[in-house]
Specification:
- InterPro entries: Cro/C1-type_HTH, Lambda_DNA-bd_dom_sf, MLTR_LBD.
- This protein has a 5-stranded antiparallel β-sheet with strand order 2-1-5-4-3, with helices on both faces.
- It is built from 13 helices and 5 strands.
- The chain folds into 2 domains: about 5-95, Orthogonal Bundle (434 Repressor (Amino-terminal Domain)); about 110-280, Beta-Lactamase (2-Layer Sandwich), CATH 3.30.450.180.
- It is elongated and about 65 Å long.
- The relative contact order is 0.12.
- The chain has helices at about 5-15, 40-45, 50-55, 65-75, 80-95, 110-115, 135-145, 160-165, 170-175, 180-195, 200-210, 215-220, 270-280; strands at about 125, 130-135, 230-235, 240-250, 255-265.
- It is α+β, with helices and mostly antiparallel strands.
Length: about 280
Amino acid sequence: MDVRSSLGEFLQAKRARLRPGDVGLPRYGDRRRVPGLRREELAMLAGVSAGYYARLEQGLSLHASREVLDAIAGAMRLTAAEREHLHVLSSLAGHRVNPAPPPTEHAAAGLNALLAAMPGVPALVTGRRNDVLAWNRAGHALFAGHLPVTAPDHPDTRPNLSRMVFLDAHTRGLYRDWERKARAVVGNLRAMTARNPGDTGLAALVGELAIESPDFARLWAEHTVTPCGSDVYELAHPLVGDLTVTQNTLTVTQEPHQSLITITAEAGSSSAAALTMLRQACGG
């Protein structure tokens, strides 16, 4: 990962999405040679010189102060997640990143027992590259019934949630609004690459998806950053039909790069009944 170019590309992408009217600037005529705001306009809104801002985009100015970055974030109307991402990229820009082979990951101690103790709740554990490190039977049946239930036990061939969303027809068909899910996956992967700039496995995953999936390449170019938290999805499951579920993603305290993902449905709803049917069908 070239951190300097990543910072510049992020700033350029966020500047390009803004129009003069979005930030209260007058618009003169209909023709602009560049999409979005000009560098000079963004610099004026942020209260910095146009030359300094240009050097930031070009990766020539390092160690921008927190105050300057916050001013730029405010001018760009960045979300809280995008603002944090900007700070992460800036903090790395002045440091040499040494590529390192990805370490073999295993689910944190106690998580397999936790998954087994909640058979009625589809759940899985993911690692620093969105690899599935473990899942319970209900989680396997909901997301990947077409794969062996033992798939996470083999580090070299583990399922990867990002890869599944873009390259696996079963997973793609699972989401009614696939585009929204895809954007969330890309936004999370974008944040992962900034937090782990030397992870060659993560870089290889991004490269693979960009080559194999035009949709991924299109969304990756938008530089969207999306935090994992709680979200509602409408699913079309091949065994139990349509259901609406809430996905919660929790950070594992003893292994901050790992996440526990749980799926629930509103009590008494047809979706809750569908999850019960799925659990019974998979013997959970």
